[in-house]
């Protein structure tokens, strides 16, 4: 049965892709090759996208919004963070090294975590109206492990994670071709292309739903009200 083309307007949405490759520009990034599959689908829907290769920037290590206030001589993260503030969709992408996420991907997660105590205009945690996804590349096993780490981290700090919000590609175990290498089969992989497409559309659908609904309802999740004594129907069983 033929499926009708989606007529929903996504043109007011913004997405930012973070590439955790260890290769500085202009060196070819295989992760960026997979990012572009998702990015092109979004741009076909009129979504404004931005790609940030974190290794190209002087991002300090740490868990504070501006590490120059904590002993670091420089930190570009405060200049990059507005891209997250403006985005409806945040996709964390990166390669597998030693079966795990790259140091750049982990640094990004830590810097996002630095803002997890901030609040949005409703008084919820600041990332509540945003959706998150994950793309992983490599030539050894580890896609699910890396994705679990990223998606857990994003939801923990307030992102909404749609179903099937990750995708990836890996070549043979051990030395072998990377995603963009000639003959790798990466760009032709039906499994990877399907999952990347599904992830992208699920991110679009959830971002659209959240934006149209004005975000997540602000009841039962307001930290300042909890601090002030509001308990949102919570009852301590010890006092029954």
UniProtKB/TrEMBL annotation:
**Superkingdom in the source lineage:** Bacteria
Which lineage? Bacteria, Bacillati, Actinomycetota, Actinomycetes, Micrococcales
Q: Whose protein is this, by species?
A: Pseudarthrobacter humi
Question: A Pfam family in this protein?
Answer: FMN_red
Recorded coiled-coil stretches: none
Q: Which residues form the NADPH-dependent FMN reductase-like domain?
A: 14-164
Name-wise, this protein is Flavodoxin family protein
């Amino acid at each position: 049965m033929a499926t009708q083309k989606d007529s929903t307007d996504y043109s007011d949405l913004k997405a930012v892709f973070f590439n955790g490759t260890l290769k500085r520009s202009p060196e070819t990034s295989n992760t960026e090759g997979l990012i572009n599959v998702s990015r092109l689908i979004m741009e076909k829907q009129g979504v404004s996208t931005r790609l940030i290769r974190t290794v190209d920037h002087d991002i300090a290590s740490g868990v504070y919004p501006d590490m120059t206030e904590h002993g670091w001589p420089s930190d570009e993260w405060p200049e990059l963070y507005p891209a997250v503030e403006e985005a409806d969709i945040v996709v964390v992408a990166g390669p597998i090294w030693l079966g795990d996420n790259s140091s750049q991907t982990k640094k990004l997660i830590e810097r996002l975590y630095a803002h997890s105590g901030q609040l949005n205009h409703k008084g919820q945690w600041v990332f509540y109206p945003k959706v998150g996804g994950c793309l992983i590349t490599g030539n050894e096993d580890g896609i699910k492990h890396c994705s679990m780490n990223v998606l857990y981290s994003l939801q923990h700090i307030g992102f909404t994670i749609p179903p099937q919000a990750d995708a990836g590609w890996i070549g043979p175990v051990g030395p072998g071709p990377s995603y963009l290498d000639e003959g790798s089969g990466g760009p032709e992989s039906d499994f990877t292309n399907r999952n990347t497409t599904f992830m992208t559309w699920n991110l679009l659908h959830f971002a659209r739903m959240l934006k149209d609904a004005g975000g997540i309802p602000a009841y039962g999740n307001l930290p300042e009200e909890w601090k002030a004594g509001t308990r949102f129907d919570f009852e301590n069983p010890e006092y029954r």
